[in-house]
Amino acid sequence: MAKRDVQQGTLALMVLKTLDVLGALHGYGIARRIEQISGDLLAVNQGTLYPVLLKLEQEGAITSEWGTSENNRRARFYRLTAAGRRRLRAETQDWAETTALMDRFIAVKAEDLL
Q: What string of H, E and C letters represents the secondary structure of the chain?
């Protein structure tokens, strides 16, 4: 099966959840972990990821600092903030409600409506 691009609007939530579970990571590490968690069904485009990281940082959901990566290169490491944790909880709840609603529509049959 071909890898799919991450749907618009979902990448920020995936980034927040990845940082929540794994702690501070650099951008490349975030992208690889998201792909790994998806079972390699998703492809995270660097050109999409970095604008999301910048936006999340500007909104105060994450913070970053320069550090050294595993291969001894300078990299910016991103970390979740308290505001980011609150946002993650709220967005996770919204997605749970949305998917439950969509599951109802997908599962409905004509006889259910009679």
A: CCCEECCCCCHHHHHHHHHHHHCCEEHHHHHHHHHHHCCCCEECCHHHHHHHHHHHHHCCCEEEEEEECCCCCEEEEEEECHHHHHHHHHHHHHHHHHHHHHHHHHHCCHHHHC
Residue-number span of the structural domain to which 56 is assigned: 4-113
User: What's the total number of domains in the chain?
Assistant: 1
Check which CATH number belongs to the domain holding 51 and give it: 1.10.10.10
pLDDT at residue 38, rounded to an integer = 92
pLDDT value at residue 53: 97
pLDDT tens digits along 44-73: 988 899 999 999 999 999 999 999 988 899
- Give the strand pairing for 4-5 and 42-43: parallel
Distances (CA, A) of 20 to 13, 49, 85: 10, 17, 7
| pTM score, whole prediction | 0.86
